[in-house]
């Protein structure tokens, strides 16, 4: 059982991808049925494994590829955090995507690669060594490319080219760093508090360069400035893809990679000894401000959200780089919190575009009366991003601030306050428009928003509220991250 | 023992039968290819159980006798040939839209099987050879049948390419023959294991240089690859697949043997291979970036990939690195065969193979395009394909030795291959306004299955790399 | 010793001439002929090498025979291909 469960979780998306790819396009009912069943089974399996891991269960499976190279999966506490995020949000996004793409072309291709994309996130979550992580990380690049260019327009192809250039470039840096580390250390399994042993004393320079390569490799996907250029451009993708890229799969894979490298490869102590934490924190701080400032001037709603993602994902990096257990709780919790908030915003934005053809902020006046459900979800997401209590975003920011105090870095408090002000400055005007301004002209209903489009943003908005309100419950994201941090900082 | 004789005789006998019975040529060909694969698997099992073996045919010893050597490296190459050949045979067996074409296409189908079976037999003999002269003979048979495969389509461009190929191949063989004779004059033997003593004398070194130059022509190693892009891109798809995936590998195999046998003294040879390989990676990559036709792009990609393999042989000392070269050979064989078959299927359905025209059709050969994409992943060397594992082992070894220049070159070569292959794959991902609502999907044909199977094989081989690596351990070096 | 040297030198000279013709000419027939001359040159070198102090060695002579057989076959194949190609500019 302990070997089968991780494989079963992987199989629920990796196994169905070829099946869906091979289906004729017009088999929509069958495809939807397969998709949703697999997604539901995955949620159940992930729930099972989380409970088992919380009770001390250990799950691992491995396959030797060549001497010294193994593909290995394990479900540790950190893995479960990311697994839960991708399983739940995949389920909801699949429902949304089925509704969104109804009647469109190439749906089998879309859903096939969609499954492959989630399979890669699951693999990234459960990777038990750096090699396995790299394998799934590259698979993620390949699986998301067809999704980005799904619309097939010249613009989409341009975005796809930019996306591929950035991510394959990052992949190359990650590969080089990984191979180099393997050459120094032999196998590099993920273990709490690092696996490098005596190497920091003997090869400090090489380890620092490798750290930079690894962080640059995962940092492309985590959209660390200056490696974030692909993210706003790839907004041409369909809404569910944007939601998935931003909230679950790609940027989170990057942020998760940073966690694995800092916590489970190097270990916080080594990172500190080598003097690598401060540059990383500085980069994260700069990204937070830069993303927020760029978001202010965007009129295209999805672009504003994209720059907001650039900024928000770096909260996670910051939480990791501050080297304080309290900040770490904030950063890890934000992995989940940012995910559910951002997916809410993107799904709502998709509904605005589908329902009334609204893509620019200028045109959003009075949407609240026309589409109350989506607008309400959008409002909850925005307020959460700003950090209004009792929503999820508040909890992460609170812990990040307390961590900054704990690490004796008051400047970070100023950064958080400044960033929250910027968040407010780019979200509140939208909220004002949608609720209080009259539309210049009545927008005709372009398409009826069916339940498949309406329910997922409502569900994730509820999660935002619940994650904030019940933050102290044992299975809340916050409760779980406390459990992880207690392992990393004993 | 019986299995080795099957490998040596069955293909030639079957070729004769297929040539005599035109109507039965396809069943004979498929049957013989399948039997050959089974025999190769049996031999592999034997080597895994009992280790490498040498037999002298008819009890004659050298220099007149013919020693057959079955070790890990030979078995891996035999398996590669057998299974890639099986995939291509599945492609060739299927009905194609060209069946209704002019009479000369019927010729194509008629003569494919005897030529392929002879090629198979020659390659088997080559991999089993334990002496240089035997290698030469196998090369000669191979050279003639490979030219026959090239000319099979009967088109003017293919015939001209076949002519150039035959001349280049014969010049290569003559150089090999001259080298062997000089080696014999120097040492009085032609077994492969005389190579260390050849490296010691001036005369021996000249002999080796001639052999290597001849092999470089046959293996299309830059800058002696001039004949190859035209030959591989103008042949029929199944022939291109065999030529690019298998036939050029035979010369690389012998180069690897020479380098391995030569040991530390063969360092100048390896430096030469490395330099030529680096040149090939750039030259082939650059030409593939500029190619306007799909098959030409794939052919130039072969130039670049042979370069990568030559680099791997060139930088390999003892230890793991030469195994990386073999993994790259295997991965390229599977992926390139898949790619040529897929390109052939795409061209067949679209009626042309201009790269710029791939995304403007209301016709979508999805299966072939998907196979092409998977093969591309393998050629670029992205995980988890065998190409990736090969590159990984190679880079790890190079970093261990501090050879950063080579690491950099390999990374640049990887970027180039990603760039030229993305030109094609991105056009396969068309959608939206380019697609007419009723875009037609062609029917499945055996060619699609073959291409997909081979491409998936390249992917799966990455996960199963421990099997070839275990076999390669059984190579006396 | 001298006849050997003559053989060697002639063989090498023929080979060099033929290689030069092969690389510079584009006429199929000339190239086929050049290839034959190259083979003859190499055969002469081999025969010279076979002639040791203890008389002629059979093995290099067997090599030469094999080479001649291969050459005949290849020449036939080349001529057939050239025939299919037809006159240039066709």
Automatic annotation (TrEMBL), chain A:
Do the record's keywords include Signal? Answer: no
State the species of origin: Histidinibacterium aquaticum
Residues in coiled coil = none
- GO MF annotation: an example: oxidoreductase activity
| Record protein name field | Monovalent cation/H+ antiporter subunit D family protein
Record field: transmembrane: 32-54, 75-98, 110-142, 163-185, 205-224, 236-259, 271-293, 305-329, 374-395, 407-428, 449-471
Q: Which domain of life is it from?
A: Bacteria
Provide the topology term for how it sits in the membrane: Multi-pass membrane protein
GO cellular component annotations, sorted alphabetically? plasma membrane
Task: Give the UniProt keywords, A-Z.
Answer: Cell membrane, Membrane, Oxidoreductase, Transmembrane, Transmembrane helix
NADH:quinone oxidoreductase/Mrp antiporter transmembrane domain mapped to chain residues = 127-419
Chain's role: NDH-1 shuttles electrons from NADH, via FMN and iron-sulfur (Fe-S) centers, to quinones in the respiratory chain. The immediate electron acceptor for the enzyme in this species is believed to be ubiquinone. Couples the redox reaction to proton translocation (for every two electrons transferred, four hydrogen ions are translocated across the cytoplasmic membrane), and thus conserves the redox energy in a proton gradient.
Where does the protein end up?
A: Cell membrane; Membrane
Automatic annotation (TrEMBL), chain B:
Q: What is the lineage of its organism?
A: Bacteria, Pseudomonadati, Pseudomonadota, Alphaproteobacteria, Rhodobacterales
Described by its record, this protein's role is as follows:
NDH-1 shuttles electrons from NADH, via FMN and iron-sulfur (Fe-S) centers, to quinones in the respiratory chain. The immediate electron acceptor for the enzyme in this species is believed to be ubiquinone. Couples the redox reaction to proton translocation (for every two electrons transferred, four hydrogen ions are translocated across the cytoplasmic membrane), and thus conserves the redox energy in a proton gradient.
What is this entry's stated membrane topology?
Multi-pass membrane protein
Q: What is this protein called?
A: NADH:quinone oxidoreductase/Mrp antiporter transmembrane domain-containing protein
Taken from the UniProt entry, a GO cellular component term is: plasma membrane
**Bilayer-spanning residue ranges:** 64-90, 111-129, 135-153, 165-186, 206-227, 239-256, 268-289, 296-315, 321-342, 363-383, 403-422, 449-471
Query: Where does the source fall among the domains of life?
Result: Bacteria
Q: Give any GO molecular function from the UniProt entry.
A: NADH dehydrogenase (ubiquinone) activity
**Native source organism of the sequence:** Histidinibacterium aquaticum
Protein keywords: Cell membrane, Membrane, Transmembrane, Transmembrane helix
**Swiss-Prot/TrEMBL GO biological process terms:** ATP synthesis coupled electron transport
Q: What is its main location?
A: membrane
Family of the protein in this entry: Belongs to the CPA3 antiporters (TC 2.A.63) subunit D family.
User: Pfam families in the record, alphabetically?
Assistant: Proton_antipo_M (PF00361)
Q: Does the keyword Transmembrane helix apply?
A: yes
Q: Where in the cell is it found?
A: Cell membrane; Membrane
Where does the NADH:quinone oxidoreductase/Mrp antiporter transmembrane domain lie?
A: 129-417
UniProtKB/TrEMBL annotation, chain C:
| Predominant subcellular localization, coarse grouping | membrane
Cite the entry's keywords alphabetically: Membrane, Transmembrane, Transmembrane helix
Its membrane topology: Multi-pass membrane protein
Q: Name one GO cellular component term.
A: membrane
Q: Where are the transmembrane segments?
A: 6-23, 32-50, 62-82
Q: Which domain of life is it from?
A: Bacteria
Protein's cellular compartments: Membrane
Quote the Pfam families the UniProt record gives: Oxidored_q2
InterPro entries membership: NUOK/Mnh_C1-like
Q: What is this protein called?
A: NADH-quinone oxidoreductase subunit K
The opening ranks of the lineage are: Bacteria, Pseudomonadati, Pseudomonadota, Alphaproteobacteria, Rhodobacterales
């Amino acid at each position: 059982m302990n070997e089968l469960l991780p494989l079963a979780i992987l199989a629920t998306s990796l196994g169905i991808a070829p099946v869906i790819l091979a289906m004729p396009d017009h088999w929509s009912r069958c495809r939807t049925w397969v998709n949703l069943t697999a997604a539901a089974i995955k949620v159940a399996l992930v729930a099972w494994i989380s409970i088992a891991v919380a009770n001390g269960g250990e799950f691992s499976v491995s396959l030797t590829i060549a001497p010294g190279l193994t593909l290995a999966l394990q479900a540790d506490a950190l893995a479960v955090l990311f697994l839960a995020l991708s399983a739940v949000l995949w389920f909801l996004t699949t429902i949304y995507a089925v509704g969104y793409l109804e009647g469109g072309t190439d749906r089998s291709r879309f859903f096939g690669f969609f499954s492959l994309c989630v399979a890669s996130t699951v693999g990234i979550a459960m990777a038990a060594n750096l090699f396995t992580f790299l394998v799934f990380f590259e698979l993620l690049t390949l699986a998301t490319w067809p999704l980005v260019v799904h619309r097939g327009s010249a613009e989409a192809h341009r975005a796809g080219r930019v996306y591929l250039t950035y991510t394959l470039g990052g992949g190359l840096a990650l590969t080089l760093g990984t191979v180099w580390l393997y050459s120094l250390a032999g196998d590099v399994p993920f273990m709490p508090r690092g696996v490098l042993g005596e190497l920091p004393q003997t090869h400090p320079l090489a380890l620092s360069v490798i750290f930079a390569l690894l962080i640059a490799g995962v940092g492309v996907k985590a959209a660390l400035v200056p490696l974030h250029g692909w993210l706003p451009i790839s907004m041409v993708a369909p809404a569910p893809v944007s939601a998935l890229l931003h909230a679950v799969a790609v940027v989170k894979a990057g942020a998760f990679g940073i966690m694995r490298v800092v916590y489970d490869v190097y270990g916080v102590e080594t990172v500190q000894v080598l003097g690598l934490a401060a540059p990383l924190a500085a980069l994260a701080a700069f990204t937070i401000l830069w993303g927020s400032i760029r978001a202010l001037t965007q009129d295209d709603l999805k672009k504003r959200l994209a720059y907001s993602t650039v900024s928000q994902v770096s909260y996670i990096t910051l939480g990791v780089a501050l080297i304080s257990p309290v900040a770490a709780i904030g950063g890890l919790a934000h992995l989940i919190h940012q995910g559910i908030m951002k997916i809410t915003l993107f799904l709502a934005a998709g509904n605005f575009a589908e329902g009334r053809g609204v893509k620019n902020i200028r045109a959003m006046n009075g949407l609240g009366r026309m589409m109350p459900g989506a607008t309400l979800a959008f409002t909850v997401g925005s307020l959460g991003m700003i950090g209004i209590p009792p929503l999820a975003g508040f909890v992460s920011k609170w812990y990040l601030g307390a961590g900054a105090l704990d690490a004796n870095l008051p400047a970070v408090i100023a950064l958080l306050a400044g960033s929250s002000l910027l968040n407010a400055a780019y979200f509140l005007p939208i909220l004002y428009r949608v609720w209080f301004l009259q539309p210049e002209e009545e927008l005709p209903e372009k398409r009826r928003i069916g339940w498949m489009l309406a329910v997922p943003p409502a569900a994730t908005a509820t999660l935002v509220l619940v994650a904030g309100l019940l933050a102290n419950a044992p299975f809340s994201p916050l409760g779980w991250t406390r459990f992880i941090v207690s392992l990393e900082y004993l | 023992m019986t299995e080795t004789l099957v490998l040596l005789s069955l293909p030639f006998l079957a070729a004769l039968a297929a040539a005599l019975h035109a109507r039965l040529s396809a069943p004979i060909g498929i049957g013989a290819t399948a039997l050959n694969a089974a025999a190769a698997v049996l031999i592999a099992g034997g080597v895994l159980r009992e280790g490498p073996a040498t037999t002298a045919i008819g009890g004659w010893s050298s220099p007149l006798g013919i020693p057959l050597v079955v070790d890990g490296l030979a078995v891996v190459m035999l398996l590669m040939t057998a299974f890639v050949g099986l995939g291509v045979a599945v492609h060739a067996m299927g009905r194609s839209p060209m069946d209704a074409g002019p009479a000369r296409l019927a010729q194509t189908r008629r003569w494919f099987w005897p030529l392929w079976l002879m090629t198979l037999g020659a390659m088997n003999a080559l991999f089993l050879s334990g002496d240089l002269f035997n290698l030469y003979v196998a090369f000669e048979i191979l050279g003639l049948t490979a030219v026959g495969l090239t000319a099979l389509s009967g088109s003017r461009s293919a015939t001209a390419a076949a002519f150039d190929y035959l001349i280049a191949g014969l010049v290569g063989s003559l150089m090999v023959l001259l080298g062997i004779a000089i080696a014999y004059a120097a040492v009085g033997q032609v077994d492969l294991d005389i190579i260390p003593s050849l490296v010691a004398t001036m005369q021996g070194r000249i002999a080796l240089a001639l052999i290597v130059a001849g092999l470089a022509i046959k293996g299309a190693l830059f800058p002696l690859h001039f004949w190859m892009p035209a030959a591989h891109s103008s042949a029929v798809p199944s022939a291109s697949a065999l030529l690019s995936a298998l036939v050029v590998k035979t010369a690389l195999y012998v180069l690897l043997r020479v380098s391995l046998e030569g040991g530390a003294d063969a360092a100048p040879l390896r430096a030469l291979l490395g330099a030529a390989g680096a040149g090939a990676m750039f030259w082939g990559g650059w030409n593939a970036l500029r190619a306007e036709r799909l098959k030409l792009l794939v052919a130039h990609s072969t130039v670049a990939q042979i370069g990568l393999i030559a680099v791997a042989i060139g930088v390999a000392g003892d230890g793991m690195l030469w195994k990386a070269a073999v993994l790259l050979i295997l991965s390229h064989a599977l992926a390139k065969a898949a790619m040529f078959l897929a390109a052939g299927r795409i061209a067949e359905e679209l009626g042309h193979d201009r790269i710029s025209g791939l995304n403007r059709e209301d016709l979508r050969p999805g299966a072939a395009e998907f196979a092409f994409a998977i093969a591309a992943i393998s050629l670029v060397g992205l995980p988890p394909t065998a190409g990736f594992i090969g590159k990984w082992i190679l880079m790890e070894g190079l970093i261990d030795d501090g050879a950063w220049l080579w690491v950099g070159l390999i990374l640049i070569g990887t970027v180039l291959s990603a760039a030229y292959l993305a030109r094609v794959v991105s056009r396969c991902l068309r959608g939206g306004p380019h697609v007419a609502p009723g875009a037609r999907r062609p029917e499945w044909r055996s060619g699609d299955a073959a291409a997909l199977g081979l491409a998936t094989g390249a992917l799966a081989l990455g996960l199963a790399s421990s099997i070839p690596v275990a076999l390669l351990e059984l190579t006396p070096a | 010793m001298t006849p050997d040297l003559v053989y060697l030198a002639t063989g090498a000279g023929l080979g060099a001439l033929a290689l030069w013709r092969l690389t510079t000419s584009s006429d199929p027939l000339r190239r086929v002929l050049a290839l034959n001359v190259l083979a003859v040159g190499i055969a002469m070198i081999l025969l010279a090498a076979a002639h040791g102090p203890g008389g002629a060695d059979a093995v290099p002579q067997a090599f030469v025979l094999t080479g001649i057989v291969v050459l005949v076959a290849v020449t036939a194949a080349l001529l057939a291909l050239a025939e299919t190609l037809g006159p240039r500019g066709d």
